[in-house]
Amino acid sequence: MLKQCASASPDTLLNMSYIVFALKWRPKNFDEIVGQEHITTTLKNAILKNRLAHAYLFAGPRGVGKTSTARIFAKSLNCKNGITAEPCQTCASCVEISQARSFDVIEIDGASNRGIDEVRVLRENVKFAPTNGRFKIYIIDEVHMLTTEAFNALLKTLEEPPEFVKFIFATTQPHKIPATILSRCQRFDFKRIPLLKIIQQLDKIVLQEKIDIDKDVLLSIARASDGSLRDAEALLDQLISFSRGKVSVSDVISVLGIVQQEVLFDITERVILKDSKGTLEILNKIVDGGKDLGLFLSNLIEHLRNLMVAKVTKGDFSLIDLPQDICERLSLQARAFSLEEIFSFFNILVNTQEIAKRIDSLRIPLEISLIKLAHSKIKSAEANLPVPGDNKKDKPEEKTVSNNITQEEADCPTTDTAAGLSLEDIKRQWQDLLNSLSKVKMSVATYLREGEPIKLEANALAVSFPKNYSLHKEALERKENKLIIEKAASELFKTKIRFNFILSKEDASRDKSEASPLMRSILDTFHARTIKEE
Asked: Tens of pLDDT along 361-386?
């Protein structure tokens, strides 16, 4: 038995061990590199046009594909099929480079081989021709760690290397590399990988590996990875090892100590509601859960930034690196603030970071700041309400169906519920329902305020929204929001009611007669009139 184990090949032993995702899913060709298309396209074109430099510098954050790209580039240069942008992956050269055991592709760790003696050895070895491939390729990782003397010793070789030698330097800190070295390299700057592309890659992995996982987990992992796909794959590996069966969001919170996106929405809603106690309760749960308050504060500042962008771009979410449904929620929540308020809140939170540097605890200044936010005056909670006009000729005729619902729907007889509830009863108490919802979840009340109950049949109530309020409709159709509405309505009207949300055929009217209930209430209270916008 011992003899058999001793004679087992390295490949057999390798197959007996577990391969982590970061290695198993390492890209094998240019097309598999995620989020660096500007670099892979340039390298492939350089290969096709035979415009190859003798030295390259790959600079960028950790875990974004620098070393992987260097290996793929090396395979492209030494593949048996010739210099090609699509290495075969099967020849001896490609296999050896993929497994980091090629004699012609020498990978050097700049952190542990940083002295002048190591570079002198490299200079001597450069003179020897490659063993099997066309080129001898030196990949030096973290090249910025080399000493000044080592860089000076490398300079002459780098300037005039033998024609069969290529240098590929990788670094996370290009500013530490001498200008004399930089000027002799073609530089490629790798970017942090966008969050959505990391999610797509993780989704591909869990599908192929047949992993049972909540979709929200992938978003949490991608956010925690800070643009590093390698970190994201390592976190996914860790969570699978931690969980028993299905990987859930609670597993992410337990292992990574991160704050859910939902918490950021909730604490912002507490601010909108001026609920100081509620903000402190949420913060206390974060502390009790062992979360990093510094990370929470950074995430909250980022949330404010996203609210600002959503408000400025008005539906264009290209500048927010988050899934579409979250972007739409940001757009809706942003309507509760003016830009000046967002700027003010941002300054308060940034000052909190500065104060925390001078005291031992972040919790105290964070609590003070959250209470300050909750007591700030929110001036634009209804900033996006339709602006009513008082021009009589703009008013619709009394017979016009509200929100342009089809005449067939309007003429359809309304059926009371078993409890004797009518559509008119609901309309009379509609404001009471909105007030009740505002105590539970302000955003739901704000969205529903723009709707109008138009039809009650059996126990199903149809609520219509203007055509340009589709985001309101979609937000209220979310399962958790719809349950909140139906529960509040059932308690108020003493009977079970189902809600259906529909869109009318026209945009929100600017006529005073069709202003929102809140706006009509304000006008009536202050005996005011509106001035029509030009």
From this structure: 889 999 999 999 988 766 544 433 33
